């Protein structure tokens, strides 16, 4: 059967401008609030115009040994030049995790599709 | 590298209550508006409570031979019993497609993760 | 104090193309599922281009005598011509309401701001 | 005519736990990227459970003398205890503004409705 999974593109964010970068501590305590920050463009900027822009980031957490991932957050970038206003590709929030696992971040460009990145995080 | 694609679960919606069902014509004309309707629960109902519910559907289109998919729509189900109000698992909109391709629908259950389904559509 | 409420524009949808139209039964039974359909453009079409488009509808229900409204649903229109694909301004779902009250629908145009409409619904 | 504006509640965030707090510089340069951070709970924490939680923040900018506001961003808080995971009420992004105006932030609690706050920002 066809799966949307084949459209989840990845790569090294230092060379591929669409890949979301996950900024989080490598190690946190269980249930401790920490800042989770997703960005596009740390190395190479991506356009932000009405014709070509990143629309959103979506983030999930998958705990080691768990059957299903849990959705954490969505960030939308809604101003792409309207009245000379732009929302840039930074999305940050705070999360609490119960155990060691993996963060999955996705970003969507209206021209170049869906991109993803992951980061393992140790929870003690 | 790890990919979120492995969490995209599928199955026969007649036996698996999380799988979104795509209702659309099998054949449309290029640029002709048609109704696109996504549902969960056509055969087996899914709970709709604060503890356990479907949160959203997300839909993409991939045109034959295209490199990237295009996002069409998001539906969110926001009432899960608050003040005895519920939003049920139906999301419909209208779209225009330029060519033959495939519709991809995803649904997310807060307990059972992400599910997907696809439908080929002929555009003449 | 300033309130965002002053930006919620309205008018007669027959003459003002941004106003969302609410399609629902005037009377339903308590807890009975019914189709709730929101549209823009029933009388006058609104552009759907990268430069100028409706981005979303947002819908709330306020029950008679209740202190707070409950959010029902969000519809996003995400294709505005990318690869000649468009999502048109129709959003439909199903809801169950506990009592008589009022539906509030909002729509957002990236150029012309936020518009609203309401519809009273009798629940028996 | 009825307007949803009457449901936009406000108050002093030091005493009312639902009111979003806007953290941004008081003065920025035109077109300069700055961090925009919205929080709930700086003074008094709000519950984060499946039964009672904040679901989203929504942010607009209205430039002095402009006719319409421009949407900047949406943050959704999606984990409310599923598998002991929570997303806390912090949402941050980066924006560029063309001129002096006002930021409008809204937050939605599934039990207590919609709350708003505003902040004037000088753009030189
Ligand atoms: Fe791109
Ligand atoms: Fe489920
Ligand atoms: Fe418009
Ligand atoms: Fe509350």
UniProtKB/TrEMBL annotation, chains A, B, C, D:
Pfam families tied to this protein: Desulfoferrodox
Entries under Gene3D superfamilies matching the protein: SOR catalytic domain
Keywords: Electron transport, Iron, Metal-binding, Transport
Molecular function GO labels: iron ion binding; oxidoreductase activity
InterPro entries in the cross-refs: Desulfoferrodoxin_Fe-bd_dom (IPR002742), Desulfoferrodoxin_Fe-bd_dom_sf (IPR036073), Desulfoferrodoxin_SOR (IPR051233)
Keyword Chaperone in record: no
Stretches assigned to the Desulfoferrodoxin ferrous iron-binding domain: 11-117
Family from the record: Belongs to the desulfoferrodoxin family.
PANTHER family: SUPEROXIDE REDUCTASE-RELATED (PTHR36541:SF1)
Name the record gives this protein: Superoxide reductase
Organism in which the protein naturally occurs: Tindallia californiensis
């Amino acid at each position: 059967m066809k799966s949307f999974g084949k459209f989840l593109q990845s790569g090294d964010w230092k060379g591929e401008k669409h890949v979301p970068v996950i900024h989080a501590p490598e190690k946190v305590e269980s249930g401790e609030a920490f800042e989770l920050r997703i960005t596009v463009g740390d190395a190479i900027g991506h356009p932000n115009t009405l014709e070509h822009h990143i629309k959103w980031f979506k983030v999930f957490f998958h705990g080691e040994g768990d059957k299903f991932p849990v959705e954490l957050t969505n960030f939308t970038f809604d101003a792409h030049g309207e009245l000379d206003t732009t929302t840039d590709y930074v999305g940050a929030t705070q999360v609490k995790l119960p155990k060691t696992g993996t963060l999955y971040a996705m970003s969507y460009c209206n021209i170049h599709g869906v991109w993803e990145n992951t980061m393992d995080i140790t929870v003690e």
